[in-house]
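Researcher: Here's the sequence for the chain we discussed earlier.
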Amino acid sequence: MTPSLLERDKLYYKLDITDNLPPGTDSIEQFEVSPRQPRPPPRPKRPVPEWPPEAERKGKWIWRYLDKLDPDTEYDQIIKTAIFFMANSFAFSAGYASTFIHLVQTPAGAAAVHHTAKAYRRGHQRFFETQDYFLDWMWYGSGSDVSRKRLESVNRIHASVWKNVPGAYSHPWEGEMAIIGAAYFETYLRKLVGARRTEPHPNVQRAWPEWGERVCAQLRTEPLDGSRSFGVNFPRTWAEVEGFYLWFQRIPMERYTDDETRRKAHDASDAFIRQFSVMWFPRRLQWFGRQVVLTVIPAPIREHNEIGHPNPVTETLIKFAIKVYLDTKDALPDPVRPDFSDEYHAAKGVNWKKTDVQTEAEWTRRDRITDAILLTIVLVGGMWALWQLRIFSV
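Model: Thanks. This is the structure I predict for it:
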């Protein structure tokens, strides 16, 4: 008989991966008994160099600016620069959907997301809240007072879940994937579509493990697991970050999956895909939004979560469009302003509790306008055709 949620514990959700340790973990003993603890933040060596004045931001100025920063101590500034000058809401939204579809493969991830039901009932609100947490950590820095308070808020949210789903937050490596997903998604995308440049700036590569470890260090597992840091055994290098991301994709989840987990993983994945599609595409093109997400999800995960596969022709077109966009962006001068920061700060003035209703209502309004335009085109075209037939019949 399957135990109820409250009767389960961390052993129920534990995956035996001792024969396939995640990159960043050196031994079974380190994984199970004596985990490597996250490093404390280093002391700064100097005042962090500021962004150059806008008048001096010409050509590929971001690359030159990143060259001047020290990834061992100035990783916060490196991540802030890379994200807010080069990212955008569409890419962040696609990465959010992709990462959480990865996470709900595991029994613990599927149980946690399913229990809150927020992904189903208030998907846009959940996205904006999650985005705001991540961007706060990136804008203010992993060790800032703002980030500490926001990370503690996440701990409280997790506590509200593990009180009802004990064992769901007892495995640090699963939580680390959320941060690693944010770090590696663009690189994964570039390699997937065959972009000309596939790797980030060397200092960005070195900064991500430093930043990610300091963020995860402030997140805690549940008391059932001893309230450990989520930063234990965090990948120490970019190669380990990349290896961890790809390792997570290749975990043989069929060994650990029952019908309940597979159903929850499917339902949650569908919810994340729908949220992305509704947020970015009108009703008649939401099928295309689904194709976009399916294209960036590896086939084994699509199969495990039973969400189907992209149409081969559409998949090819999507990859080509992404490649053209990335190659064009790389060829153009760097942006002068951190436009993503404008979007991030503007979103703080939005009542996220209403975003789901407002988004649906806005697309409904636009669809009505589109329907009216299409109907007008059809009527005018029909009248013109009838008129032409009348002329030729005379």
